[in-house]
Design goal:
mainly alpha; 7% strand; single chain; 3-stranded antiparallel sheet; elongated; 3 strands
Length: 337
């Protein structure tokens, strides 16, 4: 199936409404509309229904519609091309049914007491070398993204203050008291330069507060998805370990029965039945752990490739933004020459 994202518009409730065209493998095209909240519900459904897989991050609400359009398309492309997600009930029902999935809190949603969108978490430990290193890697990625996000927030705040200062300075230069005509022309040039610089800074602040912040939040959500898959594997490992310990206790119980001469056959039969059940649970836990390990290993490789692509896209847009910003600053300086 192929999803094609069309028009985006803001609904009366403030949610973003997305027009989507689906081209299925068989049958006619389907045109439908979904909100940004529906995409988040789909993401949460995939995370909860397939914990061993790494769900691609859904885009956060953004005022940058160009970024949002590209991010929604990328999310749907990655979901529809995934060998498991593309066959899930969630993605199959997505174009035709109103979503009724549970809405757990988004992992990147701001809490009322949280001053920053970016916060640090303690890393989890793992006994397997590969997965232990992967956990450290994902924790490092989340830490770096968090650090960059915090710096970006502070730069945006500082930029707003500079914009305000430039605007006030330009106004004061224009309202300067009596002066000679030549000095007045110089003051007007300086005021115009302040306004041009203020406009350039405004564009830069807007980019940092919207597009760059939203890109960082998507990267952070991707890192959280990978950590969730690794945590699920750790849970499977713990379940397998507990099952092995339970089986060991049953074996020890059988050994004690063998050393007793007055044990009843009924107790022996019951103990054998419990041992058989315990071994069955242990085998199921072992298979679940092996599946989680194999799937997560493959998913991590896919996630790393997607993360590299997203980082390249973010850095490309960042460099273009800085070049445009420098050109606008250059034009403000040229007004003084």
């Amino acid at each position: 199936m192929i999803f094609q994202v069309g028009e985006l518009k803001t609904g009366m409730d403030g949610d973003v409404l997305i027009s989507i065209t689906l081209t299925p493998k068989e049958g006619p095209q389907i045109q439908f509309q979904r909100t940004l909240s529906d995409l988040d519900r789909l993401y949460q459904y995939l995370v909860r229904s397939y914990p061993e897989y790494i769900a691609p991050p859904s885009p956060p609400k953004s005022s940058d519609y160009d970024f949002l359009l590209e991010s929604v398309q990328l999310f749907l492309d990655r979901v529809s091309s995934h060998p498991i997600f593309s066959e899930s009930k969630g993605i199959i029902d997505f174009p035709t049914n109103e979503f009724q999935f549970l809405l757990p809190p988004s992992p990147i949603q701001r809490n009322p007491s949280q001053k920053s969108l970016f916060s640090f978490e303690k890393p989890a430990q793992d006994t397997d070398v590969y997965f232990e290193e992967s956990k450290r890697e994902m924790q490092t990625v989340a830490t770096y993204i968090t650090s960059i996000g915090r710096i970006n927030e502070r730069l945006a705040i500082a930029g707003r203050d500079i914009c305000k200062t430039n605007q006030e300075l330009g106004q004061r230069l224009l309202n300067w008291g009596p002066a000679s005509p030549g000095f007045v022309r110089i003051l007007k040039k300086m005021a115009k330069a302040c306004y041009v610089e203020e406009e350039a800074l405004f564009h830069q602040v807007h980019y940092r507060a919207t597009t760059l912040t939203d890109q960082l939040l998507m990267l952070l959500r991707g890192a959280e998805s990978s950590q969730s898959a690794l945590d699920h594997r750790s849970f499977c490992l713990e379940s397998y370990d507990q099952a092995c310990k339970h089986t060991m206790k049953k074996l020890q119980q059988m050994d004690r029965m063998r050393g007793s001469s007055s044990i009843k056959q009924e107790k022996v039969d019951l103990a054998l039945e419990e041992l058989t059940q315990s071994k069955r649970v242990e085998q199921e836990a072992k298979e679940q752990f092996k599946k989680a390990s194999d799937v997560t290993r493959l998913e991590l490789e896919r996630y790393r490739q997607e993360k590299s692509h997203d980082l390249e896209r973010m850095m490309d847009q960042y460099v273009k933004s800085q070049i445009a910003f420098c050109k606008e600053l250059q034009s403000s300086v040229s007004l003084l020459l």
